[in-house]
Amino acid sequence: MNVIQMLGALGAATREALADWGFGARLFFKLLKMSGAALKRFGLVRDQVHFLGNYSLAIITVSGLFVGFVLSLQGYYTLQRYGSAEALGLLVALSLVRELGPVVAALLYAGRAGASLTAEIGLMRAGEQLTALEMMAVDPVQRILAPRFMGGVIALPLLTAVFSAVGIFGGYVVGVLLIGVDAGSFWSQMQGGVDVFKDVGNGIVKSIVFGVAVTFIALLQGYVAKPTPEGVASATTRSVVVSSLSVLGLDFILTAMMFSI
After folding, report:
1. DSSP one-letter code for 227
2. Conformational region of residue 182, where left means phi above 0, alpha means psi within -120 to 50, and beta covers everything else
C-alpha cells in the first residue's frame, strides 16, 4: 500500500467516524426534543421505568449491601490506625453518596438494563419492526426510543438512591453490629458531616448524567445495529463497553467540576 492509498483509507475512516458522530448527535438532540412529548404518554414511560428499574433492583440491592460491608470493614481498619474509628459512618456515607453509589449503580445498570435495551432495539431492527413503523408513517424514535430514554433517565437516579441507602445499612451492620463501633457516633458523624446539597446533590446530578449517557448509548447501539444475529450480539457488547468507559470518564470530569469549586 503506497502513501496515496494510506491517505485515502485514513480519509475514508475519518469521514465514516464523523458521519457516525453526526448521526449520534442528531439522534441525541432529537430524543431531548421529544422528551416532553414522551412524558405526556405516561403509561409508556411508566412501563419502561418498571422494566429498566424494577428488574435491575435485585442486583443493585445485593451489590449495594456487599459494597457497604466491604467499605465498612476496610474503612474501620484504616481509621483505627489514627484513632478515628467513630468517623466510620461519615466515611461510608460520603464514599457512597459522592462516588461509589452513582458510579457502581451506573456500571451495573449498563450491564443489565443497557444490554437489554440494545438487544431489544437491535432485534426490532433485525425483525424489520422499525422499518414497518416508518412505512406506516410512525416515527420509531418518538414511539420506541423516546419512552425508553426517559424511563432510563428516571430509573437510574432511583436505583442509585437505593444502592447508597442499602450500602449505608450494610456499613452499619458490619461497623456497629459486628465490629462494635458506637451506634451514636456512627450516625451523628454521618449526620454532621454529610451536606445535603454539596454531597447528596452532586451524587444525584451524577446519576442523572450517567442515566442520560448510558441509556442513550444503549439505544443508539441498538438502533444502528446490523440486522443479523452477529450484529445484535456485537452491538450489545459494544454498548456495555462504551457505556462503562463513558461512566468512568464522565465521573472524572464531573468530580473535577463539582469538588474543585
Report:
1. S
2. beta
Residue 157's nearest CA partner among 99, 215, 206, 100 is: 206
What is the full DSSP assignment across 163-188? HHHHHHHHHHIIIIIII---HHHHHH
Q: What is the grid cell recorded at 139?
A: 416515527
| DSSP character string of 17-54 | HHHHHHHHHHHHHHHHHHHHHHHHSHHHHHHHHHHHHG
Task: Give pLDDT tens digits for 199-234.
Answer: 888 899 999 999 999 999 999 998 888 888 888 889
Going 145 to 148 to 150 to 156, the CA torsion angle's sign is negative
138: its cell numbers: 410512525
Question: What is the amino acid identity at position 78?
Answer: T
- Chain Cα centroid distance, residue 130: 26
Q: Is the pLDDT at 1 greater than 70, yes or no?
A: no
Cα 159 to Cα 202: distance, rounded to the nearest angstrom? 16
Q: Does 104 have pLDDT greater than 70?
A: yes
- pLDDT tens-digit series, residues 44-73: 888 888 888 888 889 999 999 999 999 999
Cell, residue 95: 464514599
pTM for this structure?
0.89
Q: Give CA–CA dist 215/193, Å, rounded.
A: 33
Q: Which of 160, 196, 153, 158 is nearest to 67 (CA)?
A: 160
Alpha helices by DSSP H, 86-200: 88-94, 101-109, 115-126, 129-135, 140, 146-172, 183-193
Cell numbers linked to 128: 424489520
